[in-house]
Structures are given as structure tokens and as C-alpha cells.
TrEMBL record:
<feature type="domain" description="Glycoside hydrolase family 5">
    <location>
        <begin position="105"/>
        <end position="399"/>
    </location>
</feature>
<protein>
    <submittedName>
        <fullName>Aryl-phospho-beta-D-glucosidase BglC, GH1 family</fullName>
    </submittedName>
</protein>
<dbReference type="GO" id="GO:0004553">
    <property type="term" value="F:hydrolase activity, hydrolyzing O-glycosyl compounds"/>
</dbReference>
<dbReference type="InterPro" id="IPR017853">
    <property type="entry name" value="GH"/>
</dbReference>
<comment type="similarity">
    <text>Belongs to the glycosyl hydrolase 5 (cellulase A) family.</text>
</comment>
<keyword id="KW-0732">Signal</keyword>
<feature type="compositionally biased region" description="Low complexity">
    <location>
        <begin position="36"/>
        <end position="48"/>
    </location>
</feature>
<dbReference type="InterPro" id="IPR018087">
    <property type="entry name" value="Glyco_hydro_5_CS"/>
</dbReference>
<dbReference type="Pfam" id="PF00150">
    <property type="entry name" value="Cellulase"/>
</dbReference>
<feature type="signal peptide">
    <location>
        <begin position="1"/>
        <end position="35"/>
    </location>
</feature>
<dbReference type="GO" id="GO:0009251">
    <property type="term" value="P:glucan catabolic process"/>
</dbReference>
<keyword id="KW-0326">Glycosidase</keyword>
<feature type="region of interest" description="Disordered">
    <location>
        <begin position="36"/>
        <end position="55"/>
    </location>
</feature>
<dbReference type="InterPro" id="IPR001547">
    <property type="entry name" value="Glyco_hydro_5"/>
</dbReference>
<keyword id="KW-0378">Hydrolase</keyword>
């Protein structure tokens, strides 16, 4: 993500946790009916017992249920990966299936929500074509059902269901996709979308193709009680040719048009799940209002009124979540970074309030596993909690037992989640989930253990 332009707030004074929360918690908290997590924490790595089916809410769930029983979640990447060689991007086995013990570990921590990314090209190789073609290069076992790209998604949803975890399906395409030529190759990268792919709204990928895809996906999962939401596009960006800072609002208007058609297609498919719409230009909170000049017009797009807007917020200087070099070890300035976080959240919250929106879902946030960064992360989670915004942290890396990424939530060391060192962020999520279940109130959070 490119660095943010200066925001019109000045540097501001250094904020304490109390003053930062006072700034942002003007919304009346939801009347919460907190319930115990659906999976009992087992003994280190033991598979937790799924929630009794009779206790499970039916589809569709209310947003109150979404923001209480399923408020604390994690991203589980893997299915969206493609090979570096774009000539091999067509269903060649690049997706990575998360290991079963990763699901077990989340359930043992009381996590009841996973945001599950996938790639449009894998799921629907040809525009307007069927979903779920066989992936020719995926493994040697031709009887493996996950060779079918749609079945691969369904297999992960089934793993979530078995552990009492709900799923938000997320199309991780950044507003563009590769398109196969007559020979089936997806090597071409001559579009103006992110990574040279073809942007939605371009001649190669018309809006109708995006709507067709979501109509078919929604029909597949409409009656699945484990899938509670469709995040229709991750971080849309570069949806106009030669995009610059001055033309970002034009791209935002293209994105609004695409989102409107996808919303209509999902409802025409009979799906009642929550539809999650991210903001344009990487869903960044800090210039949400500028990048999304007409996103508010979607207010009347969903007759079912199950629409939630989704910002993303990382705390490094350019908000990319990469935390490069020195930033991976500690904030440049704890007070400045905390103040920048609260200012950026205020931009999004002001937009929500101005247009009368109540439902938001924070699809991505994350920080390095250091005390200072996690102090800022915890403050942000408290802001989300008190505004009634469910959150999924990035992310539980699909394979391995160490920290493969600066934001990885996998335990450090140990074997299959057993005997390792818990990350600070996962410990915080566990405390939030446990406190809400034990106290019946979202306002109590036990202190972090030394």
C-alpha cells in the first residue's frame, strides 16, 4: 500500500488510553447478549467440542449476534495464493490448505469467527463460467475432493463448522483478476488493475462478470449456517487507468457501481447472509471519506438491510501492515502512532455517523508481537468492542509452527500448537472472548498477564 498523504488533523497531542477512547466511543454500545464461546477450550491442542447445534443461531443472524457471539476472529489465509509464475496461475495447485491443527488451536482459544480468503480466478477460471473446475496440478491424488476449487473452500467451511466457528468468505482480489486467453493461459498482465490484472469495470472484466460470480457463490452458500457473511472484495484499488491521488475518488465511484451490482446479485440468489463492503483504496480508514465519495449511496442497495462496511487498519507509518525494518521491533513513537491510530479511526467513524450507518466489520488489523505495538493493538480492539464492530485479526498462517509473517498469530515453537509460546495478540483475543463469556458484559477486560 502506498504511504498515506498527510491527514488534515495536525499531529495532535499525545493521547493516553483514556483520552483516546473518549474521543472515539461516542456511539452508544450495543445491548449485548453475550454467550459462552461455542467451543470449550481443551487441553493444549485437544480438539474442542463443537457447540450444540440447538444453541446455534440460524441464518440470517442479527448484527447484534454477529457483534457479540462472533465479535473476535482471525484471518485464515492460504486459499488465495497463486504461483509467482503467472503462466501457471490457472488452477495449478498454488492454494495452500490450512492445517487442521490451526483450526483446533483457534477453537481452543474461544475464537468463533474466521475470515477465509480465496481467489476469484481459482474459483471461477472463466468469466461467466461455472464454479469449481478441477485443479490439474493439485497433488497426485486424483480422488482428492479438494482438487475441485469450490470444494476446497467448502472443505475449510466444514472444518470451521466442526469446531463451532463461523466464516466470512472473502474474495481477495483487490478489485481485479487475471483473465484466461483462448488457450487457457492467465499469463497476461497488461491491465491497469493491481499487479497488472484487469480491473472490474474494464472491458476485460465488466461489472456484470463480478455480479455473475457473486450470484453463483451466494447460491452455493445461501443455506449454509456456518457462512454468516460475504466480504465481496478485499481492498479494492487501482480501478481507473493510471490512478493517482487526484483520481482515487474516480476509482471509488467505479467500486461503488461494482458493489451495487454484486449486492443485487447476492440477494437475487436468495442468500440472506451479511454483505460486507470494504472501502476503496485498500479500505484505509485515514482517507475513507475522500476515497469513497458515493459509497454511502449503497444505503438503499440492500432491501434486506444486512449491509456492513469494512475498514482495515494497520498501525505502521504507511498503514500497509508490513512493519518493515525498525518498525517491526517497535513503534517509531508510541504516542505519535497511538494518536495517528485514533485520528484515522475517527475519519471512518465520522463518515459512518454522518450517513446514519451502524454496522461495521473490521476485516483486517494486526501488529508485530512486541509489547508496545500490542498496546496500540489492544487499544484499537477496545474501540471496536465499544462501537460494536466485530474484528478479524491478520492472520493465522496456514502452515508452519513459527512466525512466518510479522503479524502471524501462530504460537512460537512447540508442536502443532502444543507447548509453544502464545503471541500477545492471541492472548488478548482470548482474554476478550473469555471476559465477555464470564461476565456477561463487554466492558470488563482482565489485565494482561506479565
Amino acid at each position: 500500500m502506498p504511504p498515506l498523504p498527510p491527514l488534515p488533523f495536525g499531529t495532535g497531542r499525545a493521547m493516553t488510553r483514556r483520552s483516546a477512547l473518549t474521543l472515539l466511543l461516542s456511539a452508544t454500545p450495543l445491548a449485548r447478549a453475550w454467550a459462552a464461546p461455542g467451543a470449550e477450550p481443551g487441553a493444549n491442542g485437544a480438539r474442542p467440542r463443537p457447540t450444540d447445534a440447538a444453541d446455534e443461531p440460524a441464518v440470517p443472524i442479527s448484527f447484534e449476534t454477529f457483534a457479540t457471539r462472533f465479535a473476535w476472529g482471525v484471518n485464515m489465509p492460504g486459499l488465495q495464493y497463486e504461483r509467482p509464475d503467472p503462466s501457471k496461475a490457472q488452477l495449478d495447485g498454488a492454494p495452500i490448505r490450512p492445517l487442521d491443527w490451526k483450526w483446533d488451536y483457534l477453537a481452543s482459544k474461544g475464537i468463533r469467527l474466521v475470515r477465509l480468503p480465496f481467489l476469484w480466478e481459482h474459483t471461477q477460471p472463466r468469466l461467466f463460467g461455472p464454479l469449481g473446475l478441477e485443479m490439474d496440478g493439485y497433488g497426485s491424488n486424483r480422488r482428492d475432493p479438494d482438487r475441485n476449487s469450490l470444494q476446497m473452500i467448502k472443505s475449510q467451511v466444514a472444518k470451521a463448522e466442526a469446531r463451532g466457528i463461523k466464516v466470512v468468505l472473502e474474495c481477495k482480489n483487490y478489485g481485479a483478476r487475471a483473465v484466461p486467453d483462448a488457450a487457457g493461459s492467465m499469463a497476461a498482465r497488461t491491465g491497469y488493475g493491481r499487479g497488472g490484472k484487469y480491473a472490474i469495470g474494464s472491458p476485460e472484466v465488466p461489472h456484470e462478470a463480478f455480479a455473475d460470480f457473486w450470484h453463483k457463490m451466494a447460491a452455493e452458500f445461501a443455506s449454509d449456517p456456518t457462512v454468516i457473511g460475504f466480504d465481496i472484495m478485499n481492498e479494492p484499488t487501482k480501478m481507473v487507468a493510471g490512478e493517482t491521488w487526484d483520481t482515487i475518488p474516480d476509482g471509488g465511484r467505479v467500486w461503488t457501481q461494482a458493489a451495487r451490482q454484486a449486492i443485487r446479485a447476492i440477494r437475487e440468489a436468495g442468500a440472506p447472509q451479511w454483505i460486507i463492503v470494504e472501502g476503496y483504496s485498500y479500505a484505509t480508514t485515514g482517507y475513507w471519506d475522500r476515497a469513497n465519495p458515493d459509497l454511502h449511496t449503497l444505503k438503499d442497495a440492500d432491501a434486506m438491510e444486512r449491509l456492513a462496511f469494512s475498514p482495515h487498519l494497520y498501525f505502521d507509518a504507511n498503514h500497509s501492515g508490513t512493519y518493515k525494518e525498525a518498525e517491526a521491533r517497535a513503534p517509531r513513537s508510541l504516542d505519535d502512532d497511538r494518536s495517528r491510530m485514533t485520528r484515522n479511526v475517527a475519519v471512518f467513524k465520522t463518515w459512518m455517523d454522518a450517513h446514519g450507518f451502524r454496522h461495521a466489520f473490521v476485516g483486517e488489523t494486526g501488529a508485530p508481537n512486541t509489547p508496545d505495538w500490542q498496546d496500540i493493538q489492544e487499544q484499537f480492539l477496545l474501540i471496536c468492542r465499544d462501537n460494536g464492530w466485530p474484528v478479524t485479526l491478520w492472520g493465522m498462517w496456514p502452515r508452519g509452527e513459527g512466525n512466518a509473517n510479522v503479524n502471524d498469530l501462530t504460537p512460537i515453537g512447540g508442536t502443532k500448537g502444543v507447548g509453544g509460546t502464545e503471541t500477545i495478540a492471541m492472548e488478548t483475543l482470548g482474554r476478550l472472548a473469555a471476559a465477555s463469556a464470564a461476565s456477561g458484559s463487554p466492558t470488563v477486560l482482565p489485565p494482561r498477564q506479565p
